[in-house]
Amino acid sequence: MPGWFDTKETDAFAQSVVDELVKRLPPASLQQPDRKAVDRVHRMTEALSDRVREFARTRKPNFYKRARLGNRVKWGMREAGYAEEFVSAFTGELLILVTVASRG
User: Fold this and answer.
1) Contact yes or no for 80/27 (Cβ under 8 A)
2) Is the separation of the CB atoms in 21 and 48 below 8 Å?
3) Does residue 3 sit within a domain?
4) Does 86 map to a domain?
5) How many CA atoms lie within 13 A of 59 on its CB side?
6) Residues near 49 by Cβ (< 8 Å), separated by ≥ 6?
7) Three-point CA angle 82, 61, 27, nearest 5°
8) Domains of the chain: total
9) Exposed end of the chain (fewer CB within 10 Å): N or C?
């Protein structure tokens, strides 16, 4: 049971997700929603989804680690300056993707 609460890999992965998100889609780029912003969001989610699926398939995060991942990503995005609606939507989709990929 000691590995059940070990979140070093999960925390590192969460930080890498936030770092890539800030790099690919800075908070300021979402201030004026236009076609380019929608395209950037689409490209960013496609790039991240493969990494998220791979993490979930290889690490099989348990309930605690999935919750920790979502929490770390959510707070990282808030600290980076993203709008609360975007943070909630992104984090929710991330957790759904991790949950489905880890079970399949």
Assistant:
1) yes
2) yes
3) no
4) yes
5) 25
6) 97
7) 10
8) 1
9) N
Q: Which positions ≥6 away from 2 have C-beta within 8 Å? A: none
Could you give the C-alpha distances from 3 to 59, 65, 104, in angstroms and in order?
11, 10, 21
Closest CA to 52 of 11, 3, 88, 99: 99
Q: What is the pLDDT of residues 25-83, one digit of tens each?
A: 999 888 777 788 788 888 888 889 999 999 999 999 999 999 999 999 999 999 999 99
Q: For residue 17, what are the domain limits?
A: 8-22+33-103
Q: Let me know if residue 28 belongs to a domain.
A: no
Give the Cα separation of 73 and 71 in Å (integer): 6
- Total-model pTM: 0.90
Q: Is residue 56 part of a domain?
A: yes
